[in-house]
């Protein structure tokens, strides 16, 4: 029996959303179990730890489109009841209760709120919750609701049912994905920090919540009395909390630093102190933000222990802390902001009982070795925060990696796109514009004089028809609108409705059912721009008319254009045969797509000298799979000689020791690795007792040890030349220090910040093992670093004037990009490097790698089919290297295998008036997607349709409007703008 | 003061399809109000807004133009807002050089959920332009 | 800038020496062709000739008294499609070389095989002045330029502070005459391409050390002189632009300045960096139905025809000001004597300064609108640090 194709996703963390998106796009059905009662109820990480004050995560999943295509079944108030069967053939049973208001049918007319008789605080028992979310959800406060049913009666679309039945549903699925969301520590967990004990202590997530409608402003931190605090403490609580209570995502210290910088922005005179034990920003841009904070005058105080005692009445809190030197200090602030970690998942026990997954020592879901997401149970996967504290990038990558890993359990795709209705070309017909004004089921009649507006609209030049429609967002009203358009005989449509961002699919459906291209239509946000934000009748009428006039002028000049399609080659080219490259090659090949693997050395495997035995075995296993696969052609001692083309259509020449080989591919994985930075100074190379961590590992393998070992961290990292944390050195040093201690050596670690992260807390283990730690003030790179000197037969490390004798000095050197190779490859591929010299990726963004939109942005071809993975992408551990590769494979799997592809926004795509184009190439330079190229013979720009996400940068930069979007042309926009101003 | 009240400026509010319009939608969901004379105009991305589109309304009848897109790092198309910022700097420089009051053009980021920020921007800009008075170009026939 | 250089000297003047040197480059096959201004046969104007026959050089005029065609445009016309297969030396004024460099960034000129040779420029006469009496004009120009007297030159030339490209890496060879003894000039290389030319021309002969000393002194003297004049010119430019801004700033004055504009768009047609085949302001985008004009006339009370004059000028500035090289060609072309050259030069200078760019001085600096920094221009971002006491929200 073939495997099931549907996937059950339990929980709503970022990784789960990302996996759902990828599954839906690839063509698999999924069932989304949400424990909460609405879409983003269970989504705290965004607020607590996403250090930006805006968020748009769920908006990136085209929920409405997935629902329309049948890919998504979303279940609320859901609870998993039973799981039986095995991977590929699970039988699951769960219960769910639908939301009282089905937001896909809700018109957001607010009548339910108006009729609700129950006042709760400033609102009613039914209210809107646009937390950080993308859709406005109507929720009922059942604690206060009297079940009077008045809201049900007025709901024009029947979207509201106060009491929904609880249903038990059974389903057959091929795989199960556990994606339970992040949980914040409770107030009691944070009692040592005075939370809830006075007005002067607040969670960072609360600050973010207060900032939702405005972004971070002074009011976000205003004290209850209305006073504006001038002294602030920003405290990273997991650094000081009791063990086991909360765990730290590595970006927490960045959240704190970011909050401090923002405080200085809005209150330049304020005194802001960040309290932490170590600054653990290991990601891209994190070090730069740290330096920026120092420049902005933020004080960073490192403490060993810390507690907060707020005054119960006065708006003041005392921060009691011990410095790293052991000195007790107290600082008084007006507001203490707590940057909190995450609690171990509360559902773990239940999930374990139901599915057989196991918790690790800290209570997070355990994964099998070397797997990104697969648990101990075949076919059951876990992503994101459920598996341990991690940063946002890793959480998101988990999602696509899960797609990659679960492929082997899933059957054939089970979602097929429906056939598009046939559209009529209106060229040659006289222009007839119809204006259709939505009354929102009669709701807008009370707000303004709709018949009067229709009358005025009909009188506008070029308008041949105007009428009021009931709506265009429910099945019957979409159909009715389509009929009205057809009957009215118009060939251009202005629909004055609401929220095109969410409902555009429905409006498109209506006009397409009427046989017209959406390019001939314009959707106005009648509700958002007029009805709900204004009260003055005359002003509303004038504004409505201005908007309609603008839209009429625009659609008059619209043209029907058939969507373009282009071919996509389902083969892959992998450059680099180390861990990342091998992973990408085997995973792509396992899905039946041919792969060409290019390695410049004699043998596959890459740099293995840093790996332990298990890791080496794992790499050997991958090499055997590559050799055994019929789908992989492997060239060693080879390099990329030439590359032409674009996503889906690359043509490369591989230079081999014998003859050059031509390769065609749709996607390219760049897995060329990086290098260990070679230390300068510290007597390295002059004294054999000074070595790098890699050299230490070799010596320890050879059985050598020493009595006194000194380690110096951040050698060649976090400097002006290498302005980033190399991420791996701290864990590596701590691991070695623990081993040396076990052999009886005295180990002293000289450090700036211990940026240890991940599941094993090496920092704690090292301290328990008796490793000594001495901090040096390395923020001043010139003078802060310790000096290594010869002292008689041995060595000494001198830090801040104090001498520490040592037999060995071990330098923790960073990872640096292979500059020469990267630059050459970057040139060859036309793919940019980031400011750190690695290949630009979804995390190379401002302000730093948590910039969430780029990370979650669901445009797989945004990088032109090129995917940097492993160390070519950024400094990464062994497991993270595998993760980046599997994430990239997951993203590639969404597109490869589709032989023909339309532009992502169908007919809404860029185009060029070739007779006007001068081939100057400025549009090529600004196109973020490589969707444009200069045709060298004709000297004009050509479009690569499926790479164009229709952003319009090309339109703005083109001086003479040779570049345009099909719905944004010069003649449309100028006329429309003029019309707005009448 | 009463004289100023009589002047109702015409304001064009350019907003990107993602964050700017999202802010307006959140404002609507919260029934936050702003002046009727602020007329929205949607572009896919602020990076898609040609300089001429900012200049044209200032000559043809607008008293002010305000532009809102995604916050830095949050652009739906990665970097459109950074490109927009350069273009706004160019337009402001040209207007400044010609003595055409660059303060009639504002550029402020508004994220999707920031409804209050959106209406505040509309209201604050409206008050600012009201204080500044009518754009002298809009009544000139010889432009 | 390279240290490489030579000294040109001839009894019959530096122009003759330079032309002689150019002939040598042709004879030695260092260049296959020259693009250089030559007097027209009628004797009343000058045109760029693409010449391969050395003898024609005798009638060449490396620094003609007027600029009927901007040399950057000539270079663009020649190399727009591709890099020419032969080596061409283009003898142009500094602003013309800068225009060529801007065009090359816009793929409208291909300079790989073009050697840009510029000369210290005294400016040019207003074309209209010169055409009244070309012979007298030529004499006036000769006399003034010998004294480095810019007063009869065009207004943009009078305040030019880029008259010598000694420090622009985009220019390959520069001929310096300012402050050099009569009949001598220095030729210095600004690029490796220029270096290579000088190396090929340097076939030995004189004692090398002596030559080097002599050259160093000459180059230093010239450099000092240029620097001094530049400083003075920068100050004059600042003052002139301040005065100009005083005259044009504000709706009333600005519309006054452009009130005589006849929308002929000549300024755009002759502009070396306006490279579009069809200008946006002549395109379908602005070909609107009568209704549109009527509506606008209703709003404004009346609408002048031809319309959109101000939009054309400010809009065009938004397209080209960042590449404006202050050459003044537009002002020569204006039939209505509108000081467009000065206005655009002012707009260009200030816009380029705002975006940290100087047009035409380097091949490497990206055009300002195709690039950006993440952390810049925060002054254009309208701050929002506190909720606004929004009357509408409070009333609701």
Helix share bin of chain B: 40-55%
Main sheet strand line-up of chain C: 1-7-6-5-4-2-3
User: Biggest sheet of chain B: strands side by side, in what order?
Assistant: 2-1-3-4
How would you sum up the major sheet of chain C?
7 strands, mixed
Shape of chain C: globular
Strand content of chain B: 5-15%
The parts of chain B where pLDDT drops under 50 for at least 5 residues are none
- Radius of gyration of chain B, in Å, reads 15 Å
Helical coverage of chain C, percent range: 40-55%
The total strand number of chain B stands at 4
What characterizes the major β-sheet of chain B?
4 strands, parallel
Query: What's the SSE pattern of chain B?
Result: HEHEHEHEH
Q: Would you kindly provide a brief summary of this structure?
A:
The complex is a heterotrimer of chains A (982), B (143) and C (396). Chain A is an alpha/beta fold and 982 residues long.
Describe what you observe in this structure.
The complex is a heterotrimer of chains A (982), B (143) and C (396). Chain A is of the alpha/beta class and 982 residues long. Chain A has a 7-stranded mixed sheet with strand order 12-18-13-14-15-16-17. Chain A has a 5-stranded parallel sheet with strand order 3-2-1-11-19. A 5-stranded parallel sheet of chain A has the order 27-26-25-31-42, with helices on one face. Chain B is globular. Chain B has 143 residues and is an alpha/beta fold. In chain B, 43% of the residues lie in helices and 14% in strands. Chain C has 396 residues and is an alpha/beta fold. Chain C contains 15 helices and 7 strands. In chain C, strand 6 (173-176) and strand 7 (184-189) form a beta hairpin. Chains A and B meet through helix 14, helix 15, helix 22, helix 25 and helix 26 of A and helix 2, strand 2, helix 3, helix 4 and helix 5 of B.
Keywords:
heterotrimer, B: 143 residues, alpha/beta, four-stranded parallel β-sheet, 5 helices, 14% strand, globular, C: 396 residues, seven-stranded mixed β-sheet, 15 helices, 7 strands, 43% helix
Task: Reconstruct the topology from this structure.
The complex is a heterotrimer of chains A (982), B (143) and C (396).
Chain A: E1 7-10, H1 14-26, E2 30-33, H2 45-48, H3 63-69, E3 72-75, E4 79-86, E5 89-97, H4 111-115, E6 119-120, E7 123-124, E8 126-129, E9 137-140, H5 150-154, E10 166-173, E11 175-178, E12 201-203, H6 204-210, E13 231-236, H7 252-266, E14 271-276, H8 286-295, E15 299-310, E16 317-323, E17 328-333, E18 335-339, H9 348-355, E19 380-382, H10 392-406, E20 433-438, H11 450-458, E21 463-469, H12 475-488, E22 492-497, H13 500-513, E23 521-525, H14 526-531, H15 537-556, E24 566-567, E25 572-575, H16 579-590, E26 595-598, H17 613-628, E27 632-635, E28 639-646, E29 649-655, E30 661-665, E31 667-670, E32 675-676, E33 690-692, H18 693-701, E34 708-715, H19 729-742, E35 746-751, H20 762-768, E36 772-775, E37 787-791, E38 794-799, E39 802-806, E40 808-813, E41 815-816, H21 819-829, H22 852-856, E42 866-868, H23 878-895, E43 900-901, E44 910-912, H24 922-926, E45 932-935, E46 940-943, H25 953-957, E47 963-965, H26 970-980
Parallel strand pairs in A: 1-2, 1-11, 2-3, 11-19, 12-18, 13-14, 13-18, 14-15, 20-21, 20-22, 22-23, 25-26, 25-31, 26-27, 31-42, 33-40, 34-35, 34-40, 35-36
Antiparallel strand pairs in A: 4-5, 5-10, 6-7, 8-9, 15-16, 16-17, 24-43, 28-29, 29-30, 32-41, 37-38, 38-39, 44-47, 45-46
Helix pairs in contact in A: 1-10, 1-23, 7-8, 10-23, 12-13, 15-26, 16-17, 16-23, 18-19, 19-20
Chain B: H1 2-6, E1 11-16, H2 19-29, E2 38-43, H3 51-60, E3 64-68, H4 80-97, E4 105-107, H5 115-132
Parallel strand pairs in B: 1-2, 1-3, 3-4
Chain C: E1 5-9, H1 14-27, E2 33-39, E3 46-51, H2 71-79, E4 88-92, H3 94-105, E5 114-119, H4 127-132, H5 134-146, H6 155-158, E6 173-176, E7 184-189, H7 192-201, H8 208-248, H9 251-257, H10 266-270, H11 290-300, H12 309-320, H13 329-333, H14 340-354, H15 391-395
Helix pairs in contact in C: 2-3
């Amino acid at each position: 029996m073939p495997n099931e194709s549907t996937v059950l996703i339990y929980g709503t963390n970022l990784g789960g959303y990302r996996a759902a998106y990828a599954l839906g796009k690839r063509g698999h059905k999924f069932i989304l179990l949400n424990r909460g009662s609405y879409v983003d109820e269970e989504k705290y990480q965004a607020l607590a730890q996403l250090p930006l004050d805006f968020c748009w995560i769920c908006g990136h999943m085209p929920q409405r489109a997935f629902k329309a295509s049948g890919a998504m079944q979303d279940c609320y108030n859901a609870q998993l009841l039973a799981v039986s069967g095995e991977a590929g053939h699970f039988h699951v049973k769960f219960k769910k209760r639908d939301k009282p208001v089905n937001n896909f049918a809700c018109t957001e007319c607010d009548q339910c709120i108006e009729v609700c008789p129950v006042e709760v605080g400033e609102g009613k028992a039914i209210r809107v919750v646009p937390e950080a979310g993308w859709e406005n959800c109507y929720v009922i406060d059942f604690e206060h609701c009297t079940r009077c049913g008045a809201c049900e009666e007025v709901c024009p679309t029947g979207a509201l049912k106060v009491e929904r039945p609880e249903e038990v549903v059974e389903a057959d699925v091929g795989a199960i994905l556990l994606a339970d969301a992040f949980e914040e520590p409770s107030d009691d967990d944070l009692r040592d920090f005075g939370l809830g004990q006075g007005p002067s202590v607040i969670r960072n997530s609360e600050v973010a919540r207060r900032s939702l409608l405005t972004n971070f402003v002074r009011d976000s931190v205003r004290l209850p009395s209305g006073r504006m605090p001038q002294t602030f403490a920003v405290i990273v609580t997991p650094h000081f909390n009791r063990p086991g209570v909360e765990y730290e995502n590595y970006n927490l210290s960045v959240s704190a630093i970011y909050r401090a910088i923002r405080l200085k922005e809005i209150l330049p005179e304020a005194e802001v102190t960040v309290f932490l034990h170590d600054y653990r920003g290991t990601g891209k841009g994190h070090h730069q933000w740290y330096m920026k904070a120092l420049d902005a005058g933020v004080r960073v105080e490192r403490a060993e222990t810390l507690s907060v005692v707020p005054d119960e009445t006065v708006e003041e809190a005392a921060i009691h802390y011990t410095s790293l030197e052991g000195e007790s200090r107290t600082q008084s602030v007006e507001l203490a902001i707590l940057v909190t970690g995450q609690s171990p998942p509360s559902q773990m026990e239940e999930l374990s009982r139901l599915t057989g997954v196991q918790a690790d020592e800290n209570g997070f879901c355990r994964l099998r070795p070397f797997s990104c997401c697969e648990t101990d149970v075949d076919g059951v996967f876990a992503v994101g925060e459920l598996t341990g504290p991690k940063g946002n990038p890793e959480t998101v990558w988990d999602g696509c990696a899960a797609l990659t890993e679960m492929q082997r359990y899933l059957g054939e795709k089970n979602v097929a796109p429906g056939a598009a209705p046939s559209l009529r070309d209106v060229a040659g017909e006289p222009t007839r514009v119809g204006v259709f004004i939505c009354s929102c089921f009669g709701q807008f009649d009370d707000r303004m004089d709709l018949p009067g507006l229709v009358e005025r609209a009909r009188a506008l030049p070029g308008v041949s028809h105007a009428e009021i429609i009931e709506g265009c967002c429910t099945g019957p009203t979409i159909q009715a609108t389509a009929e009205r358009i057809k009957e009215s005989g118009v060939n251009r449509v202005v629909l004055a409705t609401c929220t095109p961002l969410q409902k555009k699919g429905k409006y498109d459906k209506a006009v397409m059912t009427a046989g017209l291209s959406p390019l001939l239509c314009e959707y106005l946000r009648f509700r958002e721009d007029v009805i709900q934000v204004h009260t003055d009748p005359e002003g509303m009428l004038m504004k409505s008319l201005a908007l309609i006039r603008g839209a009429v002028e625009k659609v008059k000049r619209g043209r029907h254009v058939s969507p373009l399609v282009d071919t996509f080659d389902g083969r892959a080219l992998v450059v680099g045969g180390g861990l990342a490259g091998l992973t990408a090659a085997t995973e792509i090949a396992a899905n039946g797509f041919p792969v060409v693997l290019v390695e410049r050395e004699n043998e596959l495997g890459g740099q293995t000298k840093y790996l332990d035995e298990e890791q080496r075995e794992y790499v050997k296993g991958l090499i055997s799979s590559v050799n055994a696969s019929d789908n992989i052609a492997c060239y060693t001692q080879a390099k990329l000689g030439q590359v032409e083309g674009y996503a889906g259509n690359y043509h490369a020449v591989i230079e081999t020791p014998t003859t050059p080989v031509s390769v065609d591919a749709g996607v390219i994985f760049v897995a060329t690795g990086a290098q260990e930075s070679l230390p300068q100074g510290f007597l390295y190379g002059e004294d054999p007792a000074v070595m790098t961590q890699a050299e230490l590992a070799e010596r320890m393998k050879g059985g050598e040890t020493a009595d006194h070992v000194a380690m110096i961290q951040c050698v060649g990292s976090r400097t002006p030349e290498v302005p980033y944390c190399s991420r791996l050195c701290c864990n590596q040093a701590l691991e070695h220090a623990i081993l040396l201690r076990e052999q009886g050596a005295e180990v002293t670690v000289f450090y700036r910040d211990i940026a240890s992260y991940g599941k094993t807390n090496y920092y704690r283990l090292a301290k328990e093992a008796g490793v000594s730690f001495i901090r040096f003030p390395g923020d001043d790179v010139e003078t802060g670093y310790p000096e290594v000197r010869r002292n008689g037969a041995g060595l000494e490390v001198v830090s801040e004037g104090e001498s520490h004798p040592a037999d060995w000095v071990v330098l923790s050197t960073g990872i640096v990009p292979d500059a020469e190779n990267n630059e050459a490859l970057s040139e060859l591929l036309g793919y940019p490097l980031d400011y750190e010299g690695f290949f630009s990726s979804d995390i190379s963004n401002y302000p730093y790698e948590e910039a969430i939109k780029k990370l979650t942005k669901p445009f797989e071809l945004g990088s032109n089919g090129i995917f940097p993975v492993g160390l070519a992408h950024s400094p990464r551990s062994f497991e993270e290297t595998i993760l980046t590769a599997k994430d990239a494979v997951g993203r590639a799997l969404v597109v490869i295998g589709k032989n023909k592809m339309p532009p992502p926004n169908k007919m809404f795509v860029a185009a060029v008036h070739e007779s006007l184009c001068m081939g100057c190439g400025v549009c090529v330079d600004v196109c973020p997607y490589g969707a444009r190229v200069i045709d060298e013979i004709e000297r004009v720009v050509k479009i690569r349709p499926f790479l164009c996400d229709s952003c319009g940068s090309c339109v703005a930069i083109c001086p003479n409007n040779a570049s345009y979007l099909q719905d944004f042309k010069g003649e449309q926009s100028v006329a429309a703008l003029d019309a707005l101003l009448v | 003061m009463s004289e100023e009240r009589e002047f109702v400026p015409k304001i064009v509010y350019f907003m990107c399809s993602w964050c700017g319009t999202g802010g307006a939608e959140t404002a609507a969901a919260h029934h936050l109000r702003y002046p009727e004379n602020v007329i929205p105009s949607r572009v896919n991305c602020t990076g898609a807004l040609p300089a001429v589109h900012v200049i044209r309304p200032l000559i043809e009848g607008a008293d002010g133009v305000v532009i809102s897109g995604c916050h830095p790092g949050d652009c739906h198309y990665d970097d459109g807002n950074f490109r927009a910022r350069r273009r706004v700097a160019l337009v402001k420089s040209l207007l400044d050089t010609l003595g055409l009051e660059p303060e009639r053009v504002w550029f402020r980021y508004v994220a999707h959920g920031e409804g209050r920020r959106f209406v505040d921007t509309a209201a604050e800009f409206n008050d600012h332009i009201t204080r500044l008075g009518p754009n002298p170009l809009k009544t000139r026939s010889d432009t | 800038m390279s240290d490489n250089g030579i000294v040109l000297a001839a009894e019959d003047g530096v122009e003759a020496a330079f032309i002689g040197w150019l002939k040598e480059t042709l004879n030695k096959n260092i260049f296959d062709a020259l693009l250089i201004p030559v007097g027209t046969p009628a004797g009343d104007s000058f045109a760029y000739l693409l010449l391969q026959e050395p003898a024609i050089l005798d009638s060449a005029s490396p620094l003609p008294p007027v600029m009927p065609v901007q040399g950057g445009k000539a270079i663009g016309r020649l190399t727009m499609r591709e890099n020419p297969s032969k080596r061409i030396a283009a003898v142009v004024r500094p602003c013309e070389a800068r225009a060529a460099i801007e065009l090359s960034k816009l793929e409208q000129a291909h300079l790989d095989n073009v050697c840009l040779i510029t000369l210290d420029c005294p400016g040019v006469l207003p074309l209209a002045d010169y055409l009244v009496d070309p012979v007298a004009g030529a004499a006036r120009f000769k006399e003034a330029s010998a004294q480095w007297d810019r007063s009869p030159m065009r207004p943009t030339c009078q305040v030019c502070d880029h008259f010598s490209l000694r420090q622009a890496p985009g220019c390959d060879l520069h001929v310096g005459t300012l402050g050099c003894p009569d009949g001598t000039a220095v030729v210095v290389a600004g690029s490796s391409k220029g270096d290579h030319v000088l190396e090929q021309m340097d076939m030995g002969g004189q004692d090398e050390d002596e030559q080097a000393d002599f050259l160093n002194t000459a180059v230093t003297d010239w450099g000092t002189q240029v620097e001094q004049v530049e400083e003075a010119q920068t100050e004059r430019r600042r003052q002139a632009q301040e005065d100009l801004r005083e005259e044009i700033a504000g709706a009333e004055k600005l519309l006054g300045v452009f009130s005589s504009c006849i929308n002929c768009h000549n300024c755009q047609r002759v502009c070396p960096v306006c490279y579009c085949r069809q200008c946006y302001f002549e395109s379908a985008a602005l070909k609107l139905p009568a209704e549109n004009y009527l509506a606008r006339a209703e709003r404004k009370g009346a609408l002048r025809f031809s319309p959109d004059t101000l939009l054309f000028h400010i809009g065009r500035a938004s397209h080209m000001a960042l590449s404006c090289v202050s050459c003044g060609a537009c002002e020569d072309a204006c039939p209505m004597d509108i000081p467009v050259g000065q206005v655009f030069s002012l707009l260009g200078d200030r816009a380029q300064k705002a975006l940290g760019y100087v047009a035409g001085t380097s091949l490497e600096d990206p055009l300002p609108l195709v690039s950006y920094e993440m952390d810049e221009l925060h002054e254009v971002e309208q701050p929002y640090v506190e909720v606004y006491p929004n009357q509408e929200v409070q009333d609701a």
